[in-house]
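Structure, all two chains, one model.
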Amino acid sequence: MTIITNAKYSKVLDSDSPNVINCVFGGEQLSVPINPTNRHYAEIMRQVEAGELTIADAD
Amino acid sequence: MTKARDIASATTPNANAALLATFPHRNLIINGAMQVAQRGTSGTSTADIYTVDRFALGHGSPVNAMTFEQSTDTPDNFKNSLKITAGTGASASTTGYAILRQAIEGQNIAHLGFGTSAAKAITLSFHVKSSLTGTFGISIRNQAGNRAYAGTYVINSANTWEYKTVAIPADTSGTWPTDTGIGFHLFWDLGAGSNYDIAAGSWTSGSNMFGVESTVKLTETTNATFFITGIQLELGSTATPFEHRSYGDELARCQRYLQVFVPDGQDYTSFAPAIGSSETNRFFCPITLSGGGMRTDPTLSFSAVGDFRTTNVFSNNHTCTSISIGYNNPKIPNLSVLSGGSGDSVSRMFGFNSNTSAYMRFDAEL
């Protein structure tokens, strides 16, 4: 299982809802789009649903 | 006479194969000759890490990490292979694993008809060389992980290139997606634990299947080596000669799944325009990706934020302090960049550039 840390939603533009999750994924800093067909997002959500990961709210 | 009519009238298998080998685009594998390595040419395995483009290598405890490299040790008529070297030898026991895999996009397998009464047989072929001999395993599995077929091939002589073929019968059962997600995975079993092994020779329903029973597990032997290239997976029950594609053609196929931007060797050459205001320090940087677009919205990664900067028309430079995805799409993702301070007036158009240490990756892999 890939280790994911420091996961946090981000509203990088002036949108009302987050459009990206920034995290360290397998040791690499990633900016992950909120899109179920993106493999990084799918793995993040799999770990969230398994109770293995929590995503911090956006600032 | 058409090629189809030629094939229909061919009187021997060899005649058929010769005609089939003239058809382009028959290889379902991308980068089967290991030519394209956008991420770099060497590394160490993790739970699942991409090596040369489109091929991922993974291991899990108690199997130890492997190393990999794009090699120039090849059979005749190839330029590159992928070399995998086992770490300290260890049994995979039940839940350890070591695999090489390529995931094939569902849209590219629709014509195989898997999961329907019209399903077709397929054939895998490749060149392989290993320090070990014996019977090795491959498997093919749907994305749901509940339908798989295992096959075997025999390496007869150590440290010698050999050509192998594996016939894979049609599967009329199971669910095989034909969208932009994973259609199926193709695995080379380098050290799968017993929990993942299935018997070779028939389609199997179950879960977590990718290993093959009673086969050589490379990662049980310290520093064992495994080279592979010329991988072809094609419709039909006949293996045809490897379909050599140009580097540009193969790179374009790979770029549907990964695009890497690097400087051209000169400091602070531009990546993209930056549109914004130095008063707010926020810029939008639309990156025009190559080709017809990536498979899906890509993930962004880059070397270090300090490698990038914005520059205005007065040559005022500001080092970036934040880079993230703004509006994403598979063709022109728009980055949101924070950089520098004021002092360069309220210019609206900047350059987004980097030093020579930089890289920026857009990843839409399966």
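The longest helix of chain B spans residues 13-20.
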